Amino acid sequence: MMFVFGDSYADTGNTPNGSAACWTSPYGITFPGKPSGRFSDGRVLTDFIATYLGVESPPPYRTSRRRWNGGGGSKKAKDGVNFAYGGTGVFTTILGGPNMSTQLDEFQRLVEQKVYTKHDLTSSLAHVSVAGNDYTTYDLNDDPQKNITDYAESVISQIVVNLKRLHELGVGRVSVINVPPFGCLPKNSTTSTLCNETINSSSELHNRLLKSAVEKLNSDTGGSTYLILDLYSAFMSALQGKKSSSFEKGSEECCRGTTSGSSCGDVDRDSGTKKYVVCEDPKRSFFWDTVHPSQQGWLSVFSDLAPSLHTFLFPLPSPDGSSSAVI
Hints:
Layout: E1 2-6, H1 45-53, H2 61-64, E2 80-82, H3 100-112, H4 118-122, E3 125-129, H5 132-140, H6 148-168, E4 173-177, H7 197-221, E5 226-229, H8 231-239, E6 255-257, E7 276-278, H9 295-313
Parallel strand pairs: 1-2, 1-3, 3-4, 4-5
Antiparallel strand pairs: 6-7
Helix pairs in contact: 1-9, 6-7, 8-9
């Protein structure tokens, strides 16, 4: 069982139809063949982790609430629930939507309603994908007194509060992504092959602080309750061609706008003419749009993350022959 929290890197349909490009063509052209609320041409990291666990990708909370609010009593979604919502962050972002704390409030209500048993929770994985939009919000803040180190420390402090809260609510294992190399996203990179290292320094600062914080959390709990999924290294591995299946396009997105100010999925309001183009083969592009990986990109990322995830979820048996695998 899997519970998912965070932003558009994990969202599989919570962002409302009509409010974001994820519900417009050509999003979803690879899977499921039409827009599904995923910010990609197909599957995202959430889907690959769920498959690895042997469960269906958890249904979006937005479309599942009727199970608990007047439509189905306390009937649970057997594979878990996805609370992730595109554009959100640890704090409230410029894009709006329920931040991480609000998503946890929604999860806590289900726990208090006893929708899920104690065994459901202790044998589950919570996956947290958050913080990228917080830094976008920071970058757009024109406060002359702002300080990136102070801000990153506040983001990490709140992430720690959220991770501890998940554990206190009974979740057995918690994975949290570090942030990708922001300077390598198509919207920030200097060319298709060169990343903006100045922008990447923000990612590196966040990730150093997160590593230290999660190490302390695991020390405090006396075990391996928390795992960082190293998104930064997985992105760099793919973009720098370190894998045999390297991507041809580098930091160039597959789907891009054709006019100034347009982006993937945009159409002319009057004529309906497309204001975007899609590359010939999305499998050859790591990025789908200016921020989000393609399905093939996410598969590459997951293949890098799988070994650490396996060790985390399926530890070696103890001397008495028992183990504490999460499924």
